[in-house]
Design brief:
The protein is an alpha/beta fold and 384 residues long. The protein has helices spanning 25-35, 81-92, 107-117, 136-140, 143-160, 169-178, 222-229, 247-257, 274-281, 298-305, 319-324, 335-346, 350-369, 376-383, and strands at 8-14, 41-48, 65-68, 71-76, 96-101, 123-128, 163-166, 183-186, 208-213, 236-241, 264-268, 286-289, 310-312, 328-329. Strands 3-4-2-1-5-6-7-8 form an eight-stranded mixed sheet.
Length: 384
């Protein structure tokens, strides 16, 4: 008797994927899902043909399918009706078991979910990964528009009987608060991280070296960190890395940067490719992340993997891990409270800063040792 499972066909959608990287953790999560696919799962991913915020398509990929390991990726030219029609015919010709959308209100989620509702795209089940979009901090941004959208969208999702992927118990509570009927799978965002932390590099008795590595957007709350640094009493150096998503928001940050006291040095140093993130964290003594909310917070784990402690809001699943790793969870999240914690870190001796970095590495090692390796698509397949 042949016990080989029948191939399980999954269509995933995401606004951005490699070779783009500006989408942050979800891009790397999808990469890891692809790299760990069981042999009986067939994955098709439809994504945009350019990186987040870019006007230029990826060379040689636009409008085409390309193989990525065991998966196939289609880079859609959104403004090309012929590309849409061709893709629709190709997808309708397949038997699809699962639609897996990686956002609640991205264009790349709305269109396929509507297609399922209208029976244009026949699938057996739908899995929605909101990727932190239902956190209280995220919902406060453009709140009126989001409330109106949820009033219209929630009944449709309920009728379709969708499942939800939460990347933490915290995100599961956020989903349940908005959709009490939701069937939720708690499955951590797949993270391609080293098994062992990078050891801390060189003691320094100079100014405290701080870093921000993330998207420069209201959600990440960089302006609060900058407002806090204007209030610190001790010398610090703060380097900012990340894509500039919002011109108006970046202008606000620049105004704060221009008004720093003489003992605070702030620099914007551009974007980092994914392979440079952990080595760059390794050059600093603390990561400032006053985020309004993280469903997972891949970048927090990357910081700990580089033995770099984290100074963060309480709006992530990692508060205990951050504190165990020589870092600080700032409550309440105000510029004054954030400044006080930065001053406390800056007052540490070089040896104390080193010990905090060793604690960050130990915390990461402990977390990594407890991780399971199950692929979320296999987990959904087994649920039926």
């Amino acid at each position: 008797m042949d016990d080989t499972p029948i191939p399980y066909q999954v269509l995933a959608t995401s606004q951005v994927f490699q070779p783009g990287f500006r989408g942050g953790g979800p891009v790397r999560s999808l990469e890891t899902i692809m790299n760990t696919l069981p042999p009986h799962i067939r994955l098709l991913l439809v994504t945009r043909d350019r990186d987040l915020g870019s006007s230029q398509p990826y060379p040689g990929l636009s409008g085409r399918w390309t193989r990525r390991g065991a998966a196939l990726v289609h880079y859609l030219r959104v403004g090309d009706p012929a590309n849409w029609l061709r893709l629709a015919r190709q997808l309708r010709a397949r038997r699809l078991d699962l639609l897996y959308v990686n956002s609640l209100w991205s264009f790349f989620s709305l269109v396929p979910v509507l297609a399922v509702a209208l029976r244009v795209l026949p699938v057996r089940a739908v899995l929605v990964a909101p990727r932190g979009e239902l956190s209280p901090g995220a919902l406060r941004l453009k709140a009126t528009r989001k409330r109106a959208f949820l009033l219209l969208w929630a009944p449709l999702l309920k009728r379709l009987g969708v499942r939800w992927q939460a990347c933490s118990e915290l995100e599961a509570r956020h989903i349940a608060a908005r959709f009490p009927w939701a069937r939720i799978i708690v499955h951590g965002q797949e993270a391609a991280l080293p098994a062992a932390p990078q050891p801390p590099q060189g003691r320094s008795a100079g100014p405290l070296r701080l870093v921000f590595i993330s998207r420069v957007s209201p959600m990440k709350n960089l302006d609060l960190a900058l407002a806090a640094l204007r209030k610190v009493a001790r010398p610090v150096e703060f380097d900012i890395f990340g894509p500039l998503e919002d011109a108006a928001y970046w202008a606000r940050c620049r105004r704060l940067m221009d008004k720093m006291p003489a003992h605070v040095v702030v620099r914007y140093l551009g974007e980092l490719t994914p392979e440079r993130v952990i080595p760059t964290f390794g050059e600093y003594e603390a990561f400032l992340l006053p985020t309004r909310g993280e469903n997972f917070g891949h970048v927090i784990l990357e910081s700990l993997a580089a033995s770099c402690p984290v100074v963060c809001s309480g709006e992530t699943p990692w508060s205990t891990l951050i504190e165990d790793g020589g870092g600080v969870v700032v409550r309440p999240l105000t510029a004054e409270a954030f400044a006080a914690q930065v001053d406390r870190l800056a007052a540490r001796s070089a040896d104390d800063r080193w010990r905090a970095r060793e604690s960050a590495g130990r915390a990461f090692r402990s977390w990594h040792a407890q991780q399971r390796s199950a692929n979320v698509l296999e987990e959904v397949r087994l649920l039926g």
